[in-house]
Amino acid sequence: MTSRNPSIEIKVSSGRTLKTSPVFETYWRFAAMRQELFMRRVAGDRPPWTTDPVLANHRFTNAYRASDRVSQYLIKNVIYAGLSSVEEVFFRVMLFKFFNRIDTWERLETLAGPLEWRSFEIDRYSRVLDTMMSDGDRVYSAAYIMPSPGFGHARKHRNHLQLLAHMMASGAPKKVAKSKSLAEVFQIIRSYQSLGDFLAFQFTIDTNYSEITDFSEMDFVVAGPGARDGIRKCFTDPAGLTEAEIIRVVAERADHEFSRLGIKFPNLWGRKLQLIDCQNLFCEVDKYARVAHPEIQGTSGRTRIKQRFVPNCRCVPQWYPPKWGLKLPAETGSARAKSNRKPIQSNLQFGTF
Predict the structure, then answer these.
(1) Per-residue model confidence as pLDDT tens digits over 105-119
(2) DSSP per residue, 245-273
């Protein structure tokens, strides 16, 4: 397929000029179509939720990170459930995120008792995870790779439980609570072994969903590997800017780009795209472009999208950090809450799927 999207030049405050590829326009169209799909599903509409063949056939995360299923579970069932002290909330966030899998959390909750720092025992938790493995169940999510901390245990999950105990004993919760910026939270979490830039940033955002910290998601960003590949596909000349600087440029001009392209972006009940969301969107457009723009190569060499999309019509009530002050419709997630909007039309032409 030949790309039809025009390239543009973006002047940045440093006087430099970013030069875009056709994927840059696709970035904004993808963001709008993916968010429209989400909003239609939340409203209780029946599928199909999109006219775009790539979105209809492949699985992508939401435009807003906090809207994804695992993030929603974390916010509602982990962060804002249970004891509310800084230590207990931080403990729950880290325990959940080390495995990032709802089934693992619920198995621990069922078999290890209340998941609380005050009663935490590595042996007791580890036995539950040992049993899961013996039963042939996954302990870790496949969303991203979790390197094993070097505590010398034979099984990775026991090393992560040891790391959690070390973080708690070294005062990480209070250090995070006293932080002056999102970047400082990142540096604290990054200081612990096996937690590289990508994981530390993800954990920083997850912690910031809680009441432990309250920093703007426009304060700081770290580009993950997928986002870096998406950025390379969107820009033919990055003008010497870092990936984090490019993500900020993109986030700050979102309204301009949607307006330029004539797209009415259905934001998150008044919340604009934040740095973390734009970072994620670069990762997702990297995947989308494998089909929509196969002639534009990234550095990963990947040419296919592995996960297929299977429509699920169950209700999806949303729950976001109360401090965001989002005003969700009363019937969000109800089958009765029908949407009157029409799907955003794809401007891309594909063969038969």
Answers:
(1) 999 999 999 999 999
(2) HHHHHHHHTHHHHHHHTT-----BTTBPP
Amino acid found at 107: R
In the numeric block, the tokens 């906090």 are attached to: 66
In the chain, what are the domain boundaries?
Answer: 9-64+220-313, 81-208
Q: Note if the pTM is more than 0.70.
A: yes
Question: Per-residue pLDDT tens for 141-160?
Answer: 998 899 999 999 999 999 99
Is residue 166 a contact partner of residue 154, using CB atoms and an 8 Å limit?
no
Distance CA 14, CA 275 (A): 20
Q: How confident is the model at residue 349 (pLDDT cuts 50, 70, 90)?
A: very low
The sign of the torsion formed by the CA atoms of 326, 91, 156, 109 equals negative
Question: Coil, strand, or helix at residue 76?
Answer: helix
Runs of H (alpha helix) within the chain: 22-42, 53-57, 69-73, 86-99, 102-111, 122-134, 156-169, 172-177, 182-190, 197-208, 225-234, 243-252, 254-260, 275-292
Length of the chain: 353
What tokens appear for 181 in the block? Answer: 């910026």
Is cis: bond before 48, omega within 30 of 0?
Answer: yes
